[in-house]
Amino acid sequence: KSLDNATHLYEQLTDAYAERSTPIVALGGGVIGDLAGFVAATYLRGVPFVQLPTTLLAQVDSSVGGKVAIDHGRLKNKIGAFYQPKLVIADIDTLKTLLAAELANGLAEVIKTAAIRSKELFAYLEQNIEKMKAFDVDTLEEIVYQCVRIKAEIVEKDERDTGLRNILNYGHTIGHAIEAVSEFRVKHGEAVAVGMV
User: Fold this and answer.
1) Do 50 and 26 meet the contact criterion of CB atoms below 8 Å apart?
2) Scanning 13, 25, 58, 125, which has its CA 20 to 30 A from the CA of 50?
3) Could you give the CA distance from residue 25 to residue 190 in angstroms, rounded to a whole number?
4) Phi-psi bin for 177: left (phi > 0), alpha (psi -120 to 50), beta?
5) How do residues 34-63 score in pLDDT, each as one tens digit?
């Protein structure tokens, strides 16, 4: 998520004669979504943007809400914009390709969402954690659905992060600091989990 990579993508778009109607599709996790979204927001002052998140963290959090950014130096998400995707498609089957550690990384954002807004979701997680770890499709679909529903409700009320939306940053202040001092060796979910504790 760097200016160098954004510049490379701008050059690729220019070489391909991309126009204002040319969509940029982000297929991957949160880093890919943030970088592609930043490029979509800034190339030709904005082109259509589609998110196809392939990690639990991206499906429940970073692909929804319209925050796109790149890192600058050791500072995470310091250059960015609010730019909503035209479409988000979260295919649960992609989660089957994840290592257990990556699933756990996303689970931190799921727990955050439940902790800030839904005791019912929190109880559901407690009752179904083993099914989730076993990649049970119905369980994962319910978790992704509930997290996206909650985040969308919050973002709809405060898209620009000036009030209510701040609750979505629970665990993130310390989490981002941990990521920075570890030079991003500590994964986002792990860092947020520590921040919540």
Assistant:
1) yes
2) 125
3) 27
4) alpha
5) 999 999 999 999 999 999 999 999 999 999
